[in-house]
Amino acid sequence: MREVAIVAFGQSVHVRDSAETSEVEMLMPVLHDVLAQTGLAAREIDFTCSGSSDYLAGRAFSFTMALDGVGAWPPVAESHVEMDGAWALYEAWVKILTGEADTALVYAYGKSSPGDLREVLTRQLDPYCVAPLWPDSVALAALQAQALIDAGLTDERALAGIAARSRTAAQSNPHAQLRGAGPAGEPLVAPLRTGDCPPVGDGAAAVVLAAGDTARRLAARPAWIRGLDHRIEAHSLGVRDLTDSPSTRLAAQRAGAFERPLDTAELHAPFTSQEVVLRRALDLDAADGTVRINPSGGALAANPVMATGLIRLGEAAARIHRGASDRALAHATSGPCLQQNLVAVLEGE
Description:
- By secondary structure, the chain is α/β, with parallel strands linked by helices.
- The chain is built from 11 helices and 12 strands.
- It has helices at residues 23-38, 54-57, 62-66, 85-97, 117-120, 137-150, 156-169, 212-218, 246-255, 272-281, 308-321; strands at residues 4-11, 47-51, 78-81, 103-111, 187-189, 192-193, 202-211, 223-232, 264-266, 292-293, 327-334, 340-347.
- The strands form 2 sheets. Strands 3-2-4-7-1-8-12-11-9-10 form a 10-stranded mixed beta sheet. A two-stranded antiparallel sheet has the order 5-6.
- A hairpin with a 2-residue loop joins strand 5 and strand 6.
- The longest helix is centred in the N-terminal third of the chain and has 16 residues, at 23-38.
- The two termini are 17 Å apart.
- The model has no long low-confidence stretch (mean pLDDT 95).
């Protein structure tokens, strides 16, 4: 199998409202940044793949407008997934593995501020039995949190501790929307408080992938993708155990996460209770504190929907690039209560 690595990562400063900035204006500095990191010109990118959601943009085929940020010339081989950008990275990774490309540009963006995000995300639900009840994303996360508490797997104090740790870590992240531990916040949907939930915000991210010797030429310390897999839970919430995530565990197994010790884990856990589920599924609680979890602050510090998962991969890769990590796990999720899960294992040489 060909060696593939993340050789560059860039992201915007994530903000609560970017009303005065279009998607293209938000993307262009990020795309220019990752290309500048590698020294590649646009014509040297073999494949371009993006992740975004027309539901957030409020118009069909919105991703075609965002292509203006890539440039009209030279023509590009391009694809798009109506998913978080982590799944766009998966497509680009497969493209390179098959030998159809040596380099790839992957980007993702999301503007959640124009609409009611909690209402928009109800469109992910089963349209026959669940969506007509209009449970929103926070209510469903609260249902999952209560199931964990009832099972004795966590409590409200422990959840508040996760929020405090994540946002304290974000103090060193110049791109984060929320920095510094604050109070647990006001009750929102029991047992969750505002501090247990992610901020609503806008942002973009991009990475460059490259194969073999090309990656070694473009980066001093490439972040090699040693394994990458994604799995999905049943669509119906009623047939799932919300305190566990078998799909995350299986994706991690297939990606080789359990073969050797990790030192970093970037988990896409928009709610504090979801970090509890992911830590158990990935055996991170058993690591005895030797694994640094969400040193960037994670989704609790910045949550640009459709880019947050790609950012987890990028943040893990960036730690390898600068020598702060040797073997990192990156996780991305989509859908209610951790329905779809992707896991990647990244290593330095």
